Structures are given as C-alpha cells and as structure tokens.
Amino acid sequence: GAVVSQHPSRVICKSGTSVKIECRSLDFQATTMFWYRQFPKKSLMLMATSNEGSKATYEQGVEKDKFLINHASLTLSTLTVTSAHPEDSSFYICSARISGGADTQYFGPGTRLTVL
Amino acid sequence: GENVEQHPSTLSVQEGDSAVIKCTYSDSASNYFPWYKQELGKRPQLIIDIRSNVGEKKDQRIAVTLNKTAKHFSLHITETQPEDSAVYFCAASRGGSYIPTFGRGTSLIVHP
Asked: What is the C-alpha to C-alpha distance for residues A99 and A96, in angstroms, rounded to an integer?
C-alpha cells in the first residue's frame, strides 16, 4: 500500500517550453503533497507544499510563477515548469502523506527533466 | 524553523562492519524522526522512524537512537552488506501538518 507514482519519469524539452509533471497517490488520499528538487550532490530541496483545494505554499527563493502547482484532487498534484531553461534541468520528486494518517511521507519515483 | 545537520556526508565501510550516521536538530518541539534510504536512481523509502517518547527502536540490522536532551538522533546499521549502499536521509518534524526538514544525506558505500 501507499504507492505514489509520477509521470513522466523522464522528459527532454527545448528551452522556453513548459513541462507538466504529475504526482498521483494510487491507493490513498493525500491532502498534502510535497515537491522536491534533488541536485546531483544528493540533497532534497523542498520547493513547495501542495494542499488539495488551496494554493500551494512555496519555499523561500522558489518562483511561484515559474513552478506552477495545482492540487485539484486528493490523489493528484501537478507541477508545471513554465518557460523552462537549462538551469531548471534536475530531478524532481514528489511525496505525499496519507490524509488523516501518520506522519510518514511516501515518495514518487522522480522525474528527470532535461532542458536543452 | 527547524535545522537538521547530518554527518558524515560520505561513509565508506567494509562488508560486515557497522555504520553510524548522525543527525542533530534545532527545534525542541520536533517529535518525529524518520530515516529514508535512496538507492541510485530510485525513490527515497522509509526504513525506520522514531518518536520522541522512545529512546531507541530496532528493526533487524537497523536501529535508531534518540537523545532529546542533546537534540540528536542516529542511525545504526550492523553487519553491513553491499546492498546497504545508498544515500540515507534523516528528517525531523513536529508531526501532524508540520513539514519535515531533511538532512543533506549520507552516501554509504559498503565494499565487498
């Protein structure tokens, strides 16, 4: 149980285009989902907290107009990287907590974004 | 806010040895401390967690200890195996709706 999926797993796009990444909780409802960016030296950087039915809360330094987050249902959150640039190339990982459940976060498999 | 420091950043051991990874936290109200293992190219997965009402928890070769007074907690892996090689993350939070703060990770390498 408690499986989180992400789609796509890999995406290559041209500079200036937008890319949407989906995060789904497959067998549980998630009021809260988190979006992380993981750099090559392994640290997980929290970008934003996504709350179902309300606006996402962004961490300091993360541009909300560039990284659009939508959490329209209890099982789906999306991250759209708008006007992507090569410096946005990274590994993006989402995680989710079971609504009304324990504190455990369940991570998605990640999305490798490469911007040419 | 919470600040979590994790050491070492890299740990290299021989198969069969023990490995210890340490984390310190700053928020005395934190009460939930999970540890995640991330193998290369895969997602982080919870391997063990501890709450502030206990001082130690074990699961086979893995144990976590917590010292609330000193605000530090540690992951202990005994009889390490090559498949233990991965990046390990600690985290701390107040639980509930609070957002966990992660350490920067420890790359554990177990040499056969």
From this structure: 9
* pLDDT tens-digit series, residues B49-59: 999 888 999 99
In contact, A10 and A101? CB cutoff 8 Å: no
Chain B residues within 8 A of A46 when measuring between CB atoms: 99, 102
DSSP B85: -
Chain B residues near residue A93 by CB distance under 8 angstroms:
43-44
Q: Do A93 and B43 touch (CB under 8 A)?
A: yes
Contacts of A49 in chain B (CB under 8 A): 99
| Mean pLDDT (whole number) for B53-67 | 94
On whether the CB atoms of residues A35 and A44 are closer than 8 A, the answer is: no
Please give the Cα distance from A71 to A53 (Å, whole number): 6
Mean pLDDT computed over every residue of chain A? 92
Put simply, the chain A residues between 47 and 106 with a CB less than 8 A from any chain B CB are 49, 93, 95, 103-106
Q: Which residue of A has its CA nearest to B106?
A: A42
Both tokens assigned to A104:
């455990």
**Residue A106 in this model has a pLDDT that exceeds 90:** yes
Alpha-carbon Rg for chain A, nearest whole angstrom, is: 13
Helix (H) / strand (E) containing B88: strand B86-92
Tokens found for residue A38? 């993981």
Q: Which residues of B58-83 are buried (b: 16+ CB within 10 A; e: fewer)?
A: eeeebbbbbeeeebbbbbbbeebeee
